[in-house]
Structure formats: structure tokens, C-alpha cells
Specification:
four-stranded antiparallel sheet, 4 strands, single chain, 30% helix, alpha+beta
Length: 101
């Protein structure tokens, strides 16, 4: 070895590259979510924006789940904030994951 160590991260993505985080909240019935769940998901989106956790790229409601798409440069921060907010809102059937493109 040459005495110089690499300071580049082990990840294949550049440090400032945006990653996609999906927040998926499942519900029991098919069709559109109920009013209370829609309101909680709206609150989740508002709180993520307020906490600067990423850019909301869209949301899909229906077929037993609500999926919120977030683009972020700091996926760990976004996931941490999303988990905290999901717990506060008692959205117990939620999964949060980084999606590879």
C-alpha cells in the first residue's frame, strides 16, 4: 500500500446523489384510503417537508396502500425522520425503504 488511504465512500453512489425513499403505509381494504388515514398521510408529508427531509416527488393512494415518494441526498436522515413521524402518527403498518433505481 502507498500510505495514502482512499477517502471516497464505499457506496457506488456519489455523496451528493439523490436517492429515492419510499414510505409505504398499508391498510386492510381495497380502493381509496379512509379520511383519517388520508389526513395522517397529509400530515406525514407536511412534517417531512417542514423537517427538510427531502423533496416529495409524489404519492399513490389505492389498492390497500399509500406510497409516498421522497427524493433526498440524505437518505439516513429522511428514514430516521419518517420513522419518528410514522410512530407519532400511529401509522403502525408502514415500511420505509431506499429504492435503487
Amino acid at each position: 500500500m502507498t500510505g495514502k488511504e482512499s477517502t471516497t465512500p464505499a457506496s457506488s453512489k456519489p455523496v451528493n446523489a439523490r436517492q429515492k425513499v419510499h414510505i409505504r403505509i398499508k391498510y386492510r381494504h381495497k380502493g381509496q384510503p379512509g379520511r383519517q388515514l388520508r389526513e395522517r398521510c397529509d400530515t406525514l408529508v407536511d412534517m417531512l417537508v417542514e423537517d427538510d427531509a427531502g423533496v416529495i416527488e409524489g404519492r399513490k393512494d389505492g389498492d390497500g396502500e399509500v406510497v409516498i415518494y421522497v427524493a433526498t441526498r440524505f437518505a439516513d436522515h429522511t428514514i430516521e425522520r419518517a420513522r419518528k413521524i410514522v410512530n407519532e402518527l400511529k401509522l403502525d403498518r408502514a415500511t420505509i425503504e431506499i429504492v435503487e433505481e
